[in-house]
Amino acid sequence: MQLIPRQGRHLEARSSGGHTVAVLRGELDLVLVRRLRPDLDALARESDALTLDIRGLTFCDATGLGLLVRCAERTRERGARWRLLCDQPRILRLIRLTALGDLLRPESAPAGAVSGATLARARRTE
Question: b vs e for 33-63, b when ≥16 Cβ sit within 10 Å of the residue's Cβ?
Fold first, then answer.
């Protein structure tokens, strides 16, 4: 299944070969969560592998963390692969303090490894 690409100020998502990369930017708070939830639910429901790149976030509150948990759980419930890219110390601390590291499994990646190169490859295959 080829997902419809999504592009906006806070979310850019591309799919190629069942692998979806979604890049989030801005402040993941109650307002943005309400706006992004339908798109992220669809990505979690339809992707064979979902990489959520949150390295572009400048803030994440408890509501935003809840959305990340929701995406991880829904993706894994279907047997799809889940990957969370995060290098933001404050967000990593929030994940650690809430004991959600085992569920979210945040990892860092070389700058541009996913958000740049992978999205560019996905764009070329559309």
Answer: beebeebbeebbebbeebbbbbbebeebeee
On the CB side of 105, how many CA atoms lie within 13 Å of its CA?
A: 11
DSSP label at residue 102: H
Tell me how crowded residue 9 is: count the other CB atoms within 10 A of its CB. 9
Q: Give the pLDDT confidence of 108-120 residue by residue, as tens digits.
A: 875 555 544 444 4
Contact present, 104 and 72 (Cβ < 8 Å): yes
End-to-end Cα spacing for the chain = 12
Pairing between β-strand 81-85 and β-strand 19-28 as defined by DSSP bridges? unpaired
Non-local (6+) Cβ contacts of 13 within 8 A are 3, 5, 6, 7, 20, 21, 22, 23, 39, 43
How many alpha carbons fall within 13 Å on the CB side of residue 83? 19
The pTM (predicted TM-score) of the whole model is 0.81
pLDDT tens, position by position, 65-79 = 999 999 999 999 999
